Amino acid sequence: MKFRQSNLFWPLMALLGILLFNLILTPGFFHVEMRDGRLFGSLIDIVNRAAPVMILSLGMTLVIATGGVDLSVGAVMAIAGAVAGCLIARPEGCILNALNVHGSIPAIIAVALFVALICGIFNGFLVSFLEIQPIVATLLLMVAGRGVAQLLTDGQIVTFNDPKFAALGSGSTFAIPNPIWLFVIAAILIGLLARKSAYGLFVEAVGNNPVASRYSGINAKNVKLTVYVICAVLAGLAGLIPTADIKGADANNVGLYLELDAILAVAIGGTSLAGGRFSIAGSILGAILMQSLTTTILTRGVSAEITLILKAAVVVIVALFQAPEFRARFARRRAA
Amino acid sequence: MAELLQLRNIQKSFPGVKALDGVSFTVRAGEVHALMGENGAGKSTLIKVMTGVHTLDSGEILLEGKPIQIKSPQDAVSQGISTVYQEVNLVPNLSLAENICLGRESAGFTGIKWKEVKERAERAMARLGLNVDVRRPLGSFSIAIQQMAAIARALDVDAKVLVLDEPTSSLDRDEVKQLFEAITKLKNEGMGIVFVTHFLDQVYAVSDHITVLRNGNNVGDAPIDQLPRLELVSMMIGRDASALESERVAKDPIQSTSFIETQDMGHSGSVEGVNFTIGSGEVLGLAGLLGSGRTETVRLLYGIDSANHGELKIDGRSASGHKTSKAIASGFGLCPEDRKLEGILPDLSVRENLTIVLQARQGWFRKLSRSKQDEIVQVFIDSLRIKTASPETPIKNLSGGNQQKVILARWLAANPRLLLLDEPTRGIDVGAKFEISALIEKLRKEGMAFVFVSSELEEVVRSCTKIAVMRDRKMVGMLTGEEASEEKVMSMIAGGEA
Ligand SMILES: Nc1ncnc2c1ncn2[C@@H]1O[C@H](COP(=O)(O)OP(=O)(O)OP(=O)(O)O)[C@@H](O)[C@H]1O
Ligand SMILES: [Mg+2]
């Protein structure tokens, strides 16, 4: 009874449903094998592909918990990817050539994440100090940010050949693909911040009742500023994955529409879009759920258009069951 | 008198709590029926059962002798049961008329017929004996008028039964009188009125019959003249009420150096000419009618609004650019007037609500250990008798009075130097009121300072060491010693000799 009311219940049921479907109908779906020191199989593939959205959803969860939303994460992914690509390839005429990091991978990652952090400060400043509506504030960077990325890459796909950097996207460590490791590290850091420090409590308090939080002594402005910064840095990290994977900075396509996937993952995970209580585990589950759905449909050879419709249907159903209003009505009907 | 609405043997449980355990309740036509009980006794729950907010677990409801089912609040309204809830839920930006007719606007082919809406609203307000411009936004009226609007909304449909859950907890004397006139008028028209309040005077002023609940059970049911006050209180708290006597705090001037001083402090348009000093061990009462500038003064002290003339000195230094974060850093705390909008973090647990101030003071990285939190919470659950299924229950599931106790406790736990209390006993039962008074007195003796705002003059006079009287957004005098009596304060509020 208790678990049924948990936020994880419905997404978990949906995920189990999908897995069960595959167990019966997709031969070899659960097959995992070791090849060249790396694990292969649909299950690994799902988590690997979901990694960027899972990383995004970590930050998005915090932003949504304060009652905001960050539409710019896809664009920030593109910016971080462009910065990394340019630092490695040093294309002619690129302003980033002023900065020579001599191909040091840690330095490249650090610079890309730093630029993402600046984006986060920009968003956070607009929302918490200028008090602009989060949708409007982050829409600015959503539109302009991709432009900035295109300026950096001069509208081209900046390709490079750096096996060490490429390994971030396509390599593996201890048999597990590196994107999954990046996600795990990010998730542990955010988990520690959210539950071992008081930060998570302050985020929930500010999202639940900003006025009461302020009167209780919480610096609501700082809390809001930092969630956007954290969200943007994570978006930067997520942006490195596809860039490394395709060995090129594609400002037009990296992270395109992923802000929507991240928001959906959070909503499916049971965090209210009105702010307040959040569930990081729920958001991660939400991201995995959506990726399993996509992979399942694709492996069954359904056309891309139908895929989107099916995906939308499942998302609507799970999101509906996550809404307290609907649950109350459902429970009442069952009781009667 | 004819039985209008009967509830028989009502059971209602929430996870972890049995809120109603076989309660029966009867309202007759043309009577005002008071529903009494301690915080968390089950009054609001019983009301929500009879108005369709909660479905009952078992029991039956009869309206004019016929068994009925109430499926939803709209359903209750259409069957003739109208309600004003403890937490008024109206829309401040819409006009008074729109609020009264919200969801039931007269509409024709060309959209809403505004003229008709306005006339309906005016008619409903007139039934309450009020003549106001119904086109003004609701937020621009006093709380009393807003409260009346909620009642008018209930009257706009032809109600047989009108239910009022603590309608007077934010009203002053005149407004209460106005409300009671309206209630009496409706009662004489044959309506059955259910009235919940913690003010005993009001119960005896307006009710015909009393039902008392304790822990979800009926413990008393009698016509008003057969239930004397002391017996009623004993019934409510389940022990002898004569133990509830508390002494009036000595009004001798306190010998302590003041750390707060205001000189002609004010904010254009909200409050003027505020002059007082506060030192440790003092309780400064702010007395006055609603809208006299009491809450505004508290907001200036807490840095929510900033004074634009005069001066506020803290520890001898002029506090220019005073704001809430600075007030908190100087050791101030605030229990705000509006519990729902400014006080509770509704979805967070009782534990989190109670420790939030301490945690905010500690900062992000020094999290209070769980055992420390549990310890603090248990102390206050016991000492203020906060009724909750568990410390992990979301605070929104607590009864109104118990929520108020948690808000108070969050500051008491943080031991501030100056605690600003704006209507701290709003919605709190008689027993707990005395306990809170006693607690304030104890902390005062230990050196804490308070600013105390209350619409209950008796309470202000009882617990304050000095009283600043406010009238028409100005401070009109300061009473200390023997002068600080109810009569004197009243005459100053009314504009008599200073
Ligand atoms: N939605 C809910 N979920 C869980 N418990 C609830 C809920 N509503 C009320 N309760 C519990 O039921 C009990 C009775 O609450 P109720 O609000 O009826 O008290 P009350 O008599 O109106 O008190 P007050 O004078 O403080 O308003 C309380 O213990 C409360 O915690
Ligand atoms: Mg109540």
Characterize the structure shown.
The complex is a heterodimer of chains A (336) and B (498). By secondary structure, chain A is mainly α. Chain A has one domain (41-320): ABC transporter involved in vitamin B12 uptake, BtuC. Chain A is built from 14 helices and six strands. Chain A has helices spanning 9-25, 42-65, 73-89, 105-129, 134-152, 163-170, 178-196, 199-208, 210-215, 220-246, 258-268, 280-299, 304-322, 324-335; strands at 33-35, 38-40, 158-159, 172-173, 176-177, 248-249. In chain A, the strands form three sheets. Chain A has a two-stranded antiparallel sheet. In chain A, strands 3-6 form a two-stranded antiparallel ribbon. In chain A, strand 4 (172-173) and strand 5 form a beta hairpin. Chain A starts with 8 loop residues before the first helix and ends with a helix. Chain B is α/β, with parallel strands linked by helices. Chain B is built from 17 helices and 22 strands. The interface between A and B is medium-sized, with 24 and 30 residues. The structure holds adenosine-5'-triphosphate (ATP) and magnesium ion (MG).
